[in-house]
Amino acid sequence: MMLKDRLATALAKGAGAHMILLTGDQHDGDLAATDTLLPAAVLIAVTDRADPGVILTQRTDTMSRHPGQIAFPGGRIDPGEDIVTAALREAEEEIALPRSHVTVIGEADSYRTVTGFQVTPVIGIIPPDLIFTPSEAEVASVFEVPLAFLLDEANHVEATLEWQGHDRHYYEIMWNDRRIWGATAAMIVNLARRLRWS
């Protein structure tokens, strides 16, 4: 089965009885009825090559939110935008990925961040070896990680830290000297689980 078809099948299929997906940085019971989550979207851009990769960015150290962290291109959904449009716009703004070069496969499982965002990943296939131009204000670097490495459960390490008086459990994935963790790692883990059970 081609990568495009495999991804589409995994996204179209509902969560199986044995599939536990990560929903957010906090447990469902921790959310108050009055909590308002801001909608956001990211693009998981998968390169169309024999050994596909995933495009990731490292945020600049000057960003007010998550400085220096590894992330997918993405951000807040503007008024009047849908999820796919926002993900494509953000990727164009952050790394100069033309939306015309993205074949959208579909939306993956959304994830709640501790900073109050409901983030929906959009999966897209892009041509290999594109030249990216990082936005100086937001992106320090752009790099590609093999999809097989990211999806390998052996590379998904569970960790814990104390945050605001509570233990916070999260995943991290080490790629060379890059630490992928938090919401970005959680969305990768969810995608890996979907593909494993599709």
Describe the protein.
The protein has 198 residues and is α+β, with helices and mostly antiparallel strands. The chain contains 4 helices and 11 strands, in the order αββββαββββαβββα. The protein has helices at 3-12, 83-95, 147-151, 182-197, and strands at residues 38-47, 53-59, 70-71, 74-76, 103-107, 111-112, 117-126, 139-146, 157-163, 166-175, 178-181. The termini are close together.
What's this entry about, in short?
Helix content is 22%, strand content 34%.
Features:
198 residues; alpha+beta; five-stranded mixed β-sheet; three-stranded antiparallel β-sheet; 4 helices; 22% helix
What is the strand and helix layout of this fold?
Elements: H1 3-12, E1 38-47, E2 53-59, E3 70-71, E4 74-76, H2 83-95, E5 103-107, E6 111-112, E7 117-126, E8 139-146, H3 147-151, E9 157-163, E10 166-175, E11 178-181, H4 182-197
Parallel strand pairs: 1-7
Antiparallel strand pairs: 1-4, 2-3, 2-8, 5-7, 6-7, 9-10, 10-11
Helix pairs in contact: 1-4
Q: Please tell me the overall pLDDT.
A: 88
- Euclidean distance between termini CA atoms: 12 Å
- Helical residue percent? 10-25%
The percent range for strand residues is 25-35%
Tell how many strands the DSSP assignment holds: 11
Biggest sheet statistics: 5 strands, mixed
| Unreliable residue stretches | none
Please state the structural category.
alpha+beta
Task: Spell out the helices and strands N to C.
Answer: HEEEEHEEEEHEEEH
User: How many helix segments?
Assistant: 4
Shape label: globular
> What Rg do the Cα atoms give?
16 Å
